[in-house]
Design goal:
Distance between the termini: 74 Å
Structural class: mainly alpha
Largest sheet: none
Number of strands: 0
Strand content: under 5%
Order of helices and strands: HHH
């Protein structure tokens, strides 16, 4: 019979999917400073383009949510409507 080998360095348990999506493994102290440097290095045209892209993405996301709502509402009416004699 073969014996199972145990690793010398025990690894920490893997986080659940929800924990992995909602938390960071470790905090990056330089992240905010790097973002501020990138923002300062942009000219006004690049900043306007960045903001316009963010607004467009938010609008697209909200439109998708509203579209899914209307599709679900339409399907619900098709499935659960009682036929009239």
């Amino acid at each position: 019979m073969a014996k199972e080998k145990k690793p010398n360095n025990p690894q920490p348990p893997k986080p659940s999917l929800l924990q992995a999506l909602m938390s960071r493994a470790e905090w990056d102290k330089d992240y905010k400073g790097d973002l501020q440097e990138q923002w300062k290095s942009m000219n006004n045209g690049e900043r306007a383009r960045f903001i316009a892209g963010a607004v467009f993405a938010l609008t697209l996301f909200i439109a998708a949510l509203v579209g899914v709502y209307f599709v679900i509402n339409f399907l619900r009416q098709l499935i659960f409507v009682s036929p009239t004699p």
